[in-house]
Amino acid sequence: MDDPADDTGVVAFDFDGTLTTKDSFTAFLRWRAGGARYAQGMRRLAPAAAAYLFHRNRGRLKAAAVREFLLGVPRAKLEADARAFAEAYAPRLLRPDALLTWRRWRGRRATMAIVTASPDIIVQPFARGLGADHLIATRLMFDADDRVSGIFDGRNCRGPEKVARLKAVFGQELRLRAAYGDTSGDREMLKIADEAGYRVFKEAP
User: Fold this and answer.
1) What pTM value is reported for the model?
2) Ramachandran angles phi, psi of 66, nearest 5°
3) CATH architecture of 10-198
4) For residue 10, what are the contacts with CB-CB under 8 A and spacing of at least 6?
5) C-alpha–C-alpha distance, residues 32 and 43, integer Å
């Protein structure tokens, strides 16, 4: 059993809206496409956005955005773009108070995990910069030519899927020392944490 005086253990942070001030995937798509192409793509996504009002499936809406903006992009190109985006935007996106809490837990030797519905390939440079031990995220599928296929490899990492993926990594007997999130998609993850922080970070860069 863990020593109660020892703060080692797993600590999970949602990414978008928790560590950041806004949705990183949307910001990445806008940055990568440029203003005119992004506006055109959003107009083309209008039917998918309208359908979301009925099915309320965020994964389907996200997959439609992937097909509109990233279909056919080579993995290496997408990784390079993600690195460039993180280098340019991390100072503008990351919340100072969230970073302070992140560093506090790291100083206690906790195992740090980012658990996010955003695509792993987009969040990976941020996770690397933060020194995360694990990135648990929605995975994009790539075709035989290593290009974005337009579908996910597995489920959208949101809601119960966050807990399922955490347990797949850390085991069914996972003890989550703390978890932080900001939407209903984090509810299940927060519920199993010893310390649950819901919308506790407010600062903007």
Assistant:
1) 0.93
2) -60, -45
3) 3-Layer(aba) Sandwich (3.40)
4) 110, 111, 113, 166, 170, 174, 175, 176, 177
5) 17
pLDDT digits (tens, 9 = 90+) for 141-190: 999 999 999 999 999 999 999 999 999 999 999 999 999 999 999 999 99
Three-class DSSP category at 118 = strand
Question: In DSSP terms, which residues pair with 142 in a beta bridge?
Answer: 148
CA 155 to chain centre: 13
The H or E element spanning position 179 is: strand 176-181
The set of residues, in sequence order, having a beta carbon less than 8 Å from that of 141 and lying 6+ positions away, is: 148, 149, 150, 151, 152, 153
92 pLDDT higher than 90: yes
Domain ranges of the chain: 10-198
The DSSP H or E segment spanning 124 is: helix 120-130
Give yes or no for a contact between 21 and 95, defined as CB atoms under 8 angstroms apart. yes
List phi, psi (to 5°) of 137.
-150, 170
Residue 5: DSSP 8-state = T
Q: Are 136 and 117 in contact (CB under 8 A)?
A: no
Whether the predicted pLDDT of 5 surpasses 50: no
The first and second tokens of residue 16, run together, are: 């978008």
